[in-house]
Amino acid sequence: MKLNVFLSPLIVDELYFTGKTTVVIDVLRATSTIVTAINNGVKEIVPVASVEFAVKVSGGMFGGQTLLGGERNTKKIEGFALGNSPFEYSKEIIEGKSIVFYSTNGTKAIAKAKFSEQLFICSFLNITAIANHIISLNTDLEIICAGRYNCLSLEDSVCAGMLVSKLQEHFGDLEINDSAKAAIIMYEKFGSDIFSLLQITDHGKILIENGFEADLQYCSGLDILDTVPYYSNGVLKKQNSK
Amino acid sequence: MKLNVFLSPLIVDELYFTGKTTVVIDVLRATSTIVTAINNGVKEIVPVASVEFAVKVSGGMFGGQTLLGGERNTKKIEGFALGNSPFEYSKEIIEGKSIVFYSTNGTKAIAKAKFSEQLFICSFLNITAIANHIISLNTDLEIICAGRYNCLSLEDSVCAGMLVSKLQEHFGDLEINDSAKAAIIMYEKFGSDIFSLLQITDHGKILIENGFEADLQYCSGLDILDTVPYYSNGVLKKQNSK
Known about the structure:
Two copies of one chain form a homodimer.
Chain A: E1 2-6, E2 21-25, H1 30-39, E3 44-47, H2 51-58, E4 66-72, E5 75-76, H3 91-94, E6 98-102, H4 106-112, E7 118-122, H5 127-137, E8 141-145, H6 154-171, E9 175-176, H7 178-190, H8 194-200, H9 202-209, H10 213-219, E10 229-232, E11 235-238
Parallel strand pairs in A: 1-8, 1-9, 2-7, 2-8, 3-6, 4-6
Antiparallel strand pairs in A: 4-5, 7-10, 10-11
Helix pairs in contact in A: 5-6, 6-7, 8-9
């Protein structure tokens, strides 16, 4: 079994993913928020790669049941109902709704991987559920980290390393690339205390400055959700509701 | 003092480097070869970002004292006098000559950083010389790793981490980005045995397959050279011959 990690979406072309099985990771906060929203009963999430497209898509396509959500540079976007904090995506607010979702790094990573045959959304919140699902598929895997403004982010790298380690525990040694080896090393260094890790990363520090420390605490919650979001025909849904 | 590491040149724009002090690392093998050639008395090296430009530049600009050197995808380029192995750049062959040099990843990284106010070339061979020179400059620093086909490479990341660690030993805690933290962790994991590291990296394995294991041994030679190559007006020269 071959496994490649990409620590930033910029470094790989979208056509690379054609026919592949791919996992997207953006711990702070897009994939943590997506997993939460899907666990809380959202009908579907439409990830988009630009704010302009979010506004365009939301205009009537899904009727009155559509919400705009996301952030640009950590801030809620003007005219959007929801930001990028998982706490905004409660059952009461989003159950049964369609959400058109944009984030600075996360949804761009999903867009980059859109030609994958199978595409799943991972965070610390649902990492064992994702690992078990990949184990059941028994296929080669690409893991793409959203990173931050095209650079790697420690939190995404550690999450990728944890996922690779879980797969290696099951499959034994895998054929992995240098970035996967780097991710495992970062996981071995920081994986025992995710909340402390999130507080020292570039993105974590900016979120704390903007009043989102509670988001860091929540996003460090290991395996609190059992949801496997998958992407198909332009939307994200719950795997078992396929 | 602020220090940023970029684990791949793709993720940053060339204008970012305007006015900065920058170190370029491509352990296998461009920066190891450049340091060797400059230590062996080459007059100057003209790093170019494309083979076509290498051929164009070499045509008469430097008269009969010009050699073409480099590689594309590990192989010597047709019509080029020299490849990318440091063993080809002996004193007898290159002393006093100008070399127009191209490599798949390394010279692209140098080209990306060309607007830097000061630009230096680092490998394991001259890492302490580079660290001491940066310490004498006492300035903010950018470290750009050539990586491999836009992804990080373990050997460049470990070399960057070693350089950051040397600077931290002198200056105390620096303000560093996530990629610099990742590089330090990779250095702590692999830094004690560079030759073994080079043998397990993606690029190292391919070089071994192509018969270049001796190059790996040579490129792992810590501080065997005291040369600080710097870039100015389109050419690389020895710092102390400025």
